[in-house]
Structure formats: structure tokens, C-alpha cells
UniProtKB/TrEMBL annotation:
This is GST N-terminal domain-containing protein. Gene3D superfamilies: 1.20.1050.10, Glutaredoxin. Coiled coil: none annotated. Residues 17-108 form the GST N-terminal domain. InterPro entries: Glutathione-S-Trfase_C_sf, Glutathione_S-Trfase_N, GST_UstS-like_C, Thioredoxin-like_sf.
Length: 278
């Protein structure tokens, strides 16, 4: 079939959650890439993948795993982007954004990696978790470090989000079996924990993002870190806020939106224009 707007050269692979899948994407790293694709305004279509199928789909496309489990075995993840015009396969959200910037330097909102100071640091013992975003710092070191810190702060509070992930009922058993196997147990214990523990974790997250909020407030001309100019740094934060929006109970999400005089709400609303699911 010839390439067209209905059959674009770029295919973006995201994790399928509860149907209708277009209304429920909840994974933060795919969201970072979706924001970047939409900022660039380039044609692409989404291929939805059930979690237990990610490894097979990546292997079929020829994308090596970009994460490892603690025992050293491959951990296949999404997002992934393929571009048939350049025969490219990108298997990591950061690589997708770099690729889009290289291929389409002036499209859409322009430079995804403008030079800027991203001085939010979060260090936490997340050794119990498999690292999400290990990579060489290279040319865009400021963005790499920022990605790592933002991933860490939200990952350290992921227990607020994990119980709210809603999978396709047709696949939920297979998904739970996969998680149990990873944890080395027969059956997963219930993930819910008490209201008091959740409330404590909410306070912990609110305090942990104080410096991130300062960064969001630094330029008063607009909702983004650089004011009116959106960049990949905004996609990184937006990806995690999206996950929270999709998984927290409504009253907790409202609370988050109200933190720090609504800074996070203003930021989140600013990103709405780049949130189309295509
Ligand atoms: N460094 C990778 C991390 C990707 C990643 O961890 N993706 C998660 C979703 S946010 C995933 O695919 N998880 C699948 C699983 O746990 O089976 C990236 O930035 O793309």
C-alpha cells in the first residue's frame, strides 16, 4: 500500500490498556514519545501492543531490548518507533525524540532540545526497581540527567499509580501471570495499600517535586519550562503526569492539580494541545 496520511511511514508502538485503547494509554515513556511526535506534527499511526506481546513484537521488528532485568536477562519495553522511509527502528523514548529532531529539525514547535538548564535533581535508592533510563550523557547530557531524575522521583512513588492501571479484561490474567513470574511468586499479592499510606506517599511526592515546580515556574511567559517554547523536557514531565491522570483516583488527581497554586495543572493543560492519540 502506498504511503499516505492513512498509511504513514512512521509507526508508533504503545502499550494497550483497557478498551477503547485510544482513550486509556497510561504508560509514561510512550507518552513522552507521543508528546514529542505531536509537537513535531509529523504523520504517524499507533500500533497497540498487549503487554505480554511486547517481546515478540520487538523481536519481530528487530529492536533489541533497551532494559535488563536484575538477573541480566532482556527486558523488552515500549515505546518503539519505526520509519519505513529511512528504515529506522527506535526502541527508546529518548532515542525517538532525538530521531525526530534530527529528521524534522524545523517541524511543528521547532527544536525539541534547545539548550537550557534543567536543574532538578532527585536521587533515591531505587535499586529495588530496574532502572528505566540508563544511558550515556553525550550531547544532550542536561536532558539525559533530567530524564533520569524525573523518572526516579515518579518511580519512587509508583505505588500511588500501579493499583490504578487498568488492563484489557481479555488479557489481564496473562499480564498478572507475567508480573508474578517476574516477581518469582506464584500469585501476586493485592497491590492496594491503605488510605493512610497513600496519603503519606502523596505528601512525599508533593515535597519531592518542589524543585521541579520551581523549574516549571521559572519562565513566567507560558506553561512550559521555557515559557512559550515547548521542548522534550516538557514531554518527560508530561509523560508522568499523564500516567498519574490515568491511574490515580479522581480526588487525588485533583489534589495534585492543586499543588503549588496550580502550577502542575497549568503545565498539564498547556500540554493538552500535544496529546492527540492517533
Ligand atoms: N528507557 C526506556 C524505558 C521504557 C519502559 O520502561 N517502558 C515501560 C512502559 S513506561 C514498558 O514498556 N514496560 C513493559 C513491561 O513492564 O512489561 C524508554 O525510555 O523508552
Amino acid at each position: 500500500m502506498a504511503l499516505s496520511n492513512d498509511n504513514p511511514a512512521m509507526v508508533f508502538y504503545d502499550i494497550a490498556f483497557r478498551p477503547p485503547v485510544e482513550s486509556t494509554p497510561a504508560a509514561p515513556n510512550p507518552w513522552k514519545a507521543r508528546y514529542a511526535l505531536n509537537m513535531k506534527g509529523v504523520p504517524y499511526k499507533t500500533q497497540w501492543v498487549q503487554m505480554p506481546d511486547i517481546a515478540t513484537v520487538r523481536q519481530k521488528v528487530g529492536a533489541p531490548a533497551c532494559r535488563k532485568f536484575a538477573d541480566g536477562t532482556d527486558y523488552y519495553t515500549l515505546p518503539m518507533l519505526t520509519d519505513s522511509t529511512t528504515n529506522s527502528i527506535l526502541g527508546d523514548s529518548f532515542d525517538i525524540a532525538l530521531y525526530l529532531q534530527k529528521q524534522y529539525p524545523d517541524s511543528g514547535t521547532g527544536d525539541l532540545f534547545p539548550s537550557q538548564t534543567l536543574d532538578f535533581k532527585y536521587e533515591h535508592d531505587t535499586a529495588f526497581l530496574v532502572p528505566l533510563s540508563e544511558r550515556e550523557e553525550g550531547e544532550f547530557g542536561e536532558y539525559v540527567r533530567f530524564n533520569r531524575s524525573v523518572d526516579s522521583v515518579f518511580t519512587a512513588h509508583v505505588m500511588l499509580m500501579a493499583p490504578g492501571m487498568q488492563f484489557d479484561p481479555a488479557h489481564v490474567e496473562a499480564i498478572q501471570a507475567m508480573f508474578a513470574k517476574r516477581a518469582g511468586v506464584e500469585t501476586l499479592p493485592p497491590m492496594e495499600f491503605g488510605a493512610e499510606d497513600r496519603a503519606k506517599l502523596m505528601v512525599s511526592l508533593r515535597d519531592a517535586v518542589a524543585d521541579l515546580v520551581k523549574l516549571l515556574n521559572r519562565n513566567e511567559t507560558g506553561p512550559f519550562i521555557q515559557g512559550q517554547q515547548a521542548s522534550y523536557a516538557d514531554c518527560i514531565v508530561g509523560g508522568w503526569l499523564r500516567m498519574m491522570k490515568m491511574t490515580l483516583p479522581a480526588f487525588e488527581w485533583e489534589e495534585v492539580m492543586g499543588w503549588y497554586d496550580g502550577t502542575l495543572e497549568k503545565f498539564y493543560q498547556g500540554l493538552e494541545q500535544f496529546s492527540q492519540v492517533k
